[in-house]
């Protein structure tokens, strides 16, 4: 659908095959567990499994007596500060006094082999005294609830105040209010968390690991070891999936390995089991969202009042940034003149929660897009018409009162999704009442602030180092991470067009913190935008330097020199890029350059007003389902996914992002629920935590709308997260269309559907 003439368009826009495909399909790609170092030991963690307890003693005598055990590392062995909090300093690496959730590790056992380490870890005895615990965020906010931290459970609040909420509801002809709930969602990446720490002869340490944010890891390891940042080098290994789950959690596993390696002065590898990963890695925040929306008879929204309670778990991790995003976007992609939003981060004694694809928005989207459908039905209006009427467009303002001036593709995503899905005809279809299989169609629309926004400006810069060798080959070091999303391929295309070098001559490395300055995290759909612009900055510097040499060789003014498709020249006079590189080398001209890009200023005051994000991406998904009323089983039949991407850089990688996102939406909507009993996880593996499989993949049609962003690389915006956001509520709305059942909680399992039908709800 989006094939382009590569010669006419250059590398950008073409379907360049993934540059890492061959290494991955042949097995040559080296993941962290494939690496080994001389003298390396293996480690395992000691998890007492307490939800909330005082730690009285760690007895490691039995473990230390076992053959092959080298050490049992506890908080007493941490040479620096025993702290790995990402935003707030509230999370000890190895608790010494208090355990706050069942994933807290009190010791690291180091042994000759992994099997010995795990056996010895099971032999370590932690003496504890139970403390009352709290497992529900709403309950945790009540007076008298057990305190997870001494300062109280509510540690964060954001507010958005726009207009006059009372006047807004007075002007409404209809008001709908509901409370919605979502639960933990596991990232379910294929490769579990893992790290290797290698002490270096200069007194520092090098960390190898699977991760999204090497600079987070660098800071955490430097903190626990008490070292300068310059003495901690972090190298990202090939990473087998992330989806946000490898943003904050790698700091913990890498720091554990680092403390053990520091104590023993030998390399230490620590690889989680899948159960370890379930207990220790962060999850999607469970949220309780109360949403009240007012509208006039013609469907114009007048006011929205929203309360968001986010369950942070035992430590805040990334909750401050996640809840900020939830608060700023809680109204959905609509212009509403009067807004009153309160969003809270709350401690409980549950698993920690952090980044997950969508970063706090899928939960609020479930609420706001369900309510929009209810308002449309109550007014007798079509749901897409209501969205078009109120949807954001150039010249309109967001809930934070930000004026949108460019690259707003929401209306076009709605129009194209409507047409491609056959929406109007399918909405009118009604099967026979006697047919047990009910078919429905539903829609969900979203907007998403690209990059970190006003609460992450200090981290919103990114670097790149570009080196052109004498033979014309190019090597690029970057600060953003490839975790399976196709970043290395897209950056190769950007570099090719920015520098004029052939794609086959370009190699982009995984992150090494010793080469590129702190470039922030690879999250928030920021990496293509930020790193792509850093590469363009470096390429422009090189073109200026190399262009002077080309000008002399060709006898043309530097202003006429062009770099394109491996040739450098003007008019009919040109030389090969490789020939120019060789000439630069012969003249001792520097052919290396550093690039840097920082996000534009964004603002968010105490009332939540300001330009919260520099630019937004938009999407609409239309989902079609079949519901078997005899069993409650919901089959996702088809999804039409329309996305405003700014500019298409590689259609194939974009389609892959959308198709993966559609399945994650299906998981959130229909299958995935981490079942717990107090602090215990009853579904700690993929045999009990139910995921959609290849058998559940629906027909997917992707539609890409290009509304270029003036500051994006070749006009592109981020799309990493938007495919995983509108689909869950589109499925929920489709189930309602099919059955008349409005669900206020996800996932909507077959059991939930069958019980609701048995209770006489629905049609």
Structural features, described:
- Helix content is 29%, strand content 24%.
- It is an alpha+beta fold.
- It folds into three domains: 6-29 and 461-598, Aldehyde Oxidoreductase, domain 4; 32-131 and 187-280, Aldehyde Oxidoreductase, domain 3 (Alpha-Beta Complex), CATH 3.90.1170; 287-454 and 604-758, Aldehyde oxidase/xanthine dehydrogenase, molybdopterin binding domain (Aldehyde Oxidoreductase, domain 4, 2-Layer Sandwich).
- It has a seven-stranded mixed sheet with strand order 3-5-1-12-9-10-11. It has a five-stranded mixed sheet with strand order 7-15-14-13-8. It has a four-stranded mixed sheet with strand order 16-24-25-28, sandwiched between helices.
- It starts with 5 loop residues before the first helix and ends in a 5-residue tail after the last helix.
- Mean pLDDT is 95; it is low at 1-8.
Question: What gap, in angstroms, lies between the N and C termini?
Answer: 39 Å
The geometry reads as: globular
Report Rg.
Answer: 27 Å
Helical/strand content category: alpha+beta
Q: Any low-confidence stretches, pLDDT <50, length ≥5?
A: 1-8
Main sheet summary: 7 strands, mixed
CATH topology of the largest domain: Aldehyde Oxidoreductase, domain 4
Oligomer: single chain
Question: Would you report the number of β strands?
Answer: 28
Q: What share of the residues does DSSP label as strand, in percent?
A: 15-25%
The CATH architecture term of the largest domain is: 2-Layer Sandwich
Q: How would you name the CATH homologous superfamily of the largest domain?
A: Aldehyde oxidase/xanthine dehydrogenase, molybdopterin binding domain
What is the tally of helical segments? 20
Class of the largest domain in CATH?
Alpha Beta
Which range best describes the helical content: under 10%, 10-25%, 25-40%, 40-55%, 55-70% or over 70%? 25-40%
Strand order of the largest sheet: 3-5-1-12-9-10-11
**How many distinct folded domains?**
3
Q: Mean pLDDT across all residues, rounded?
A: 95
């Amino acid at each position: 659908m989006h094939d382009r003439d590569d010669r006419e368009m250059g590398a950008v826009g073409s379907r360049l095959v993934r540059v890492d495909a061959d290494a991955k399909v042949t097995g040559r790609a080296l993941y962290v567990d494939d690496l080994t170092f001389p003298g390396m030991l293996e480690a395992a963690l000691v998890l007492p499994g307490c939800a909330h307890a005082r730690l009285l003693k760690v007895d490691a005598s039995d473990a230390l007596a076992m053959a092959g055990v080298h050490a049992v590392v506890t908080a007493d062995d941490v040479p620096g500060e025993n702290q790995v909090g990402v935003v707030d300093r509230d999370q000890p690496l190895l608790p010494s006094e208090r355990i706050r959730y069942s994933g807290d590790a009190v010791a690291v056992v180091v042994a000759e082999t992994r099997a010995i380490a795990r056996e010895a870890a099971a032999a370590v005895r932690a003496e504890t005294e139970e403390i009352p615990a709290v497992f529900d965020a709403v309950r945790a906010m009540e007076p008298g609830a057990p305190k997870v931290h001494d300062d109280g459970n509510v540690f964060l609040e954001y507010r958005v105040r726009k207009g006059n909420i009372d006047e807004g509801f007075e002007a409404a002809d209809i008001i709908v209010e509901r409370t919605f709930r979502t639960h933990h969602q596991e990232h379910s990446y294929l490769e579990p968390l893992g790290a290797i720490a290698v002490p270096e002869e200069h007194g520092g340490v090098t960390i190898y690991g699977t991760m999204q944010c090497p600079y987070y890891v660098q800071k955490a390891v430097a903190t626990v070891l008490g070292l300068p940042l310059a003495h901690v080098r972090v190298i990202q290994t090939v990473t087998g999936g992330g989806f946000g789950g490898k943003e904050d959690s790698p700091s913990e596993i890498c720091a554990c390995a680092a403390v053990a390696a520091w104590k023993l002065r030998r390399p230490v590898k620590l690889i989680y089991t899948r159960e370890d990963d379930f207990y220790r890695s962060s999850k999607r925040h469970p949220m309780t969202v109360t949403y009240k929306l007012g509208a006039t008879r013609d469907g114009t929204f007048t006011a929205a009042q929203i309360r968001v309670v986010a369950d942070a778990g035992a430590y805040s991790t990334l909750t401050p940034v996640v809840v900020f995003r939830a608060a700023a976007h809680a109204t959905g992609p609509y212009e509403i003149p009067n807004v009153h939003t309160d969003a809270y981060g709350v401690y409980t004694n549950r698993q920690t929660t952090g980044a997950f694809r969508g970063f706090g928005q899928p939960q609020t989207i479930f609420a706001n897009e369900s309510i929009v459908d209810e308002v449309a039905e109550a007014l007798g209006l079509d749901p897409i018409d209501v969205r078009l009427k109120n949807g954001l467009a150039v010249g309109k303002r967001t809930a934070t009162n930000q004026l949108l001036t460019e690259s707003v593709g929401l209306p076009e995503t709605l129009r194209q999704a409507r047409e491609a899905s056959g929406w109007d005809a399918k909405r009118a279809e009604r099967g026979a009442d006697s047919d047990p299989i009910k078919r429905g169609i539903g829609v969900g629309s979203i907007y998403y602030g690209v990059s970190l926004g006003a609460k992450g400006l200090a981290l919103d810069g990114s670097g790149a180092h570009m080196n052109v060798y004498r033979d014309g080959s190019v090597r690029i070091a970057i600060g953003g991470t490839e975790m399976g999303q196709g970043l290395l391929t897209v950056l190769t295309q950007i570099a090719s067009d920015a520098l004029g070098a052939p794609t086959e001559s370009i190699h982009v490395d995984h992150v090494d913190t010793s080469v590129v300055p702190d470039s922030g995290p690879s999250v928030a759909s920021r990496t293509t935008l930020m790193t792509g612009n850093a590469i363009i900055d470096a390429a422009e510097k090189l073109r200026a330097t190399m262009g002077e040499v080309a000008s002399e060789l060709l006898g043309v003014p530097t202003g006429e020199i062009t770099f394109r498709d491996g040739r450098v020249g003007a008019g009919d006079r040109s030389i090969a890029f490789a020939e120019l590189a060789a000439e630069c080398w012969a003249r001792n001209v520097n052919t290396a350059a550093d690039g840097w890009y920082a996000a534009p200023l964004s603002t968010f005051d105490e009332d939540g007003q300001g330009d919260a994000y520099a630019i937004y991406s938009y999407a609409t998904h239309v989902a079609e389902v079949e519901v078997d009323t005899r069993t409650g089983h919901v089959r996702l039949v088809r999804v039409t996914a329309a996305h405003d991407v700014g500019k298409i850089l590689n259609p194939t990688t974009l389609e892959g992002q959308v198709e993966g996102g559609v399945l994650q939406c299906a998981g959130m909507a229909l299958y995935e629920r981490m079942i717990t009993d107090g602090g215990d996880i009853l579904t700690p593996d993929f045999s009990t935590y139910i995921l959609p499989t290849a058998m559940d993949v629906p027909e997917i049609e992707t539609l890409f709308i290009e509304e270029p962003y003036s500051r994006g690389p070749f006009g592109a915006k981020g799309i990493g997260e938007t495919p995983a956001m509108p689909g869950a509520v589109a499925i929920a709305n489709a189930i309602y269309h099919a059955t008349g059942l409005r669900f206020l909680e996800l996932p909507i399992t077959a059991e939930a559907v069958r019980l609701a039908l048995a209770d006489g709800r629905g049609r």
